[in-house]
Fold these 3 entries.
Entry 1:
Amino acid sequence: MSTIVEPVPSGLTRELGGRLRDWVPALVVFVLAIALWQGLTTAFHVQTFLLPKPSDIARSFWENKSALWSAGVYTLKEAAGGFVLGSGLGILAALLLARFRVVGAALMPFAIAANAIPIIAFAPITNNWFGLLNPFSKMAIAAVLCFFPTMVNTLRGLTSVHPSSIELMRSYAAGETAVFRHVRIPNSLPFMFTGLKISAVLSMIGAIVGEYFGGPTNALGVSILNDTQLFDFPRAWAGIVLASAFGLAFYGLVVLAEHFTTSWHPSARSFSGE
């Protein structure tokens, strides 16, 4: 009599299954919200310029999918460029501020003041600096939005190391470079990815806002603005939905990078239930 041994699911399979189960409530709420949206706009005869029906938005997206997709990819490239530029500078600034505390104390108020300026104030300025049709003018706006969250979170991770870890490194006569490499930087990774996840969404917002103040006609922000001025609100909402989808996809890529980069960290293991 043979015995059938069922394969034991690996840790990765269990984790993926857990992640999928975590998304089920959100998907249920999303479906219910769309159904409620469709039902209320139909029952109360809501005008299209106030709030189009989801079915009209989906139909408009399908009819204009080629143009919308092309515009969305163009804006996504601007957002990605601003994300890389702003987040890279934020991480570099955090390393410098953590290494030289006096400089950090002197420069932090200026970084906070720059972050407090409304982003729409930067858009006309960057358009004048780099040119209305230059993608870098939109990347600069996205970079401004990405810089501060990445810098603050990374700096927090670099400076919140347990003193015993520093003392242990000092007992081995480790220099400041070794302390950063083996203690501070690994400790900062979960904090850094928190800032990167925030920046991934903000980068798309920055690119869209920059395009509202002028840009090429094949940009998503310009397309949404033109559609609203032409009273084609279903297509405008289709562009908004596409921008949201790209933002979520960008966020998901950062989460995936975080999983493979910080899977060794205790916070990642506790999150996965191990």
Entry 2:
Amino acid sequence: MSIFLTSCGQNQTNVPRENIKSETKDSLTSNVWDIKQGRNGNIWFATSDGVFRYDGKSFTKITGKLISRPFFSVLEDRKGNFWFGTYGSGVYYYDGKSFQNFTSRDGLANNWVMPIYEDKDGIIWLGTTGGVSRYDGKSFRSFKISDRQTNNSVNAIVQDKAGKMWFGTRGDISIYDGKTFTTLTAKDGKTFRNVWSIIKDGKGNIWFGADGLWRYDGSAFTQIDQTGAGVIIEDKKGNVLTSIGGPIFRYDEQSLSDKKPHLTVIKTKYEGRRNLPFGLLWANDGSIWIGSERYSYDGKTLTEFKGN
């Protein structure tokens, strides 16, 4: 089913920059919504209390007293600049020295910004609770995916190997080919509801958590399990890790194309809790971050990280 593309206009951006004094802490106690590792190895956290950077020794609150609203997402673009999505104050662009704040006044679809994604052409895509926006380096262009509010609340973004953009929403998955949005349906004609996470693995397969965990290889959908996934990542070895809180499920890289990939269950102290973690990262040094806590993994169990 194709949905007519609705554009919300295009706005040139001319936003003043502001300098913010950072703060340093020994630990991180805020709720963590997103974790990414920068190209220089630093770990970045989008939290309910701001954006923090971990350099291996301490946590620096990069956003200082910038705003009081939570930060939901973080992205380092190909130029080494950062984008921080907030829950109510738009998106902040950080060049390492100063910040620029972009809001609906500048062309954003909505000020509640959740996923941020950079496509192969360097375009920045921002999912909001009111549609999706794209930034080409000069201006924003925003779109309504459909006339249904749940389909405009975007939780996840990825670009497939054909160059099409996938948007996971509270309603369905929509695919944008540059002209129109199409609602994704399985072989039986059903849509995928409550999509909180989507990734493309190293083999080009699309994994997404909806009502169950699914994999799409470019021609067919396979339901991997019925549990779903609030977060999906790929580690440095190509294994796919998922969680809805509680244990972490690791699908072995060598069996990712199998109907039932080999599964290892990594138990955590959050057993039985289905609301954690939103933030999950397998770092370059082999440690695992679950929210603000860092662990090492020996193939069987997680232990508190004892490195630097």
Entry 3:
Amino acid sequence: MPGLYIHVPFCRSKCGYCDFYSVPGAGEESMDRWLDALEAEASFYRGFRADTLFIGGGTPSVLPPDRLARLLSLTRSFAAGGTFAEATMEVNPGSLDRDKADAMAEGGLNRVSMGMQSDSPRVLGVLRREPGDVKAAFRTLREAGFGNISLDLMTGIPSQTGGELRSSLGAALELGPEHISVYPLEIHGGTPLGEAGLAEEPDGAEEGWRLASAELGKAGYARYEISNFARPGRECLHNLNYWKGGDYLGLGPAAASHFSGLRYTTVPDLGSYCSALEAGNQPPRSALELLSPRQRAGERIMLGLRLAEGIEASDPIFIEFREELEELLSAGRLEARGGRIALPENDLYVCNSALARFV
């Protein structure tokens, strides 16, 4: 079943590393204009149904409760069978309160992904990230009825120490979320950190990931994808659809869509997006691409091998890449186990060169 993604292009302020499209400090008038345009865009897909929903950004939790309610009312018309099997929204602890959490729960959301990154004020300062009380926000979500919460942590931050990462892991585990993601910091050109000349620390990122993998495993979280760990049965269904090459519809400026090898992204510009829909047109697209059968197979392999379970050895997607597969198996860069092809445990963090053979 396809997934539905909605991009909320608003935030209070840009984090220093953020490369996602957003409009910092926009007012409610801009939010209302965006919601009007989003409803118009949704009208072009009245027959579309999805099993999962993911609302990202930007910072969706900057929306006031009444705008959240309006947004979530719109999404329900896309739910297969009337409700989503999984409906997630990203939140920032600094912009969440009880009224918003209640609106989220009442609107049909059943999962929340919260950006924690670190529990160190110093490290958050390096990231130029808006501070927020993660513990208080987590408690608010629990009190509102959310039984499925994910926390994001980050490694490879310049000057981050092992002790600071251990402290963050401990703080996250103390809260008891159902899911934890551990991502390496990526600094792109044009972001504040990039302009300041800061660079990632690859060695620190790998060491941090290995530390997190060990600690989370001890705490009962299974790694089901390279950067994602979950309690049994709490894997992110929406992202699993991405990693397995499924279809998804993206609504909002900068949102990406994929249908049977046709991939495109809506223009990352709020004004152009709204103007087109106000004129009765679909918003302009960018990066429109029709993948060849070989490209589709290669991407499915590349993404599927990120999963701990790997890919069934008998899957016909390997036909196009039999030579590459045999070479990587012979070199020990891939392994066959239980009728499946997977990455060796020791190679997980340095797998890009192997995965690149399928692109």
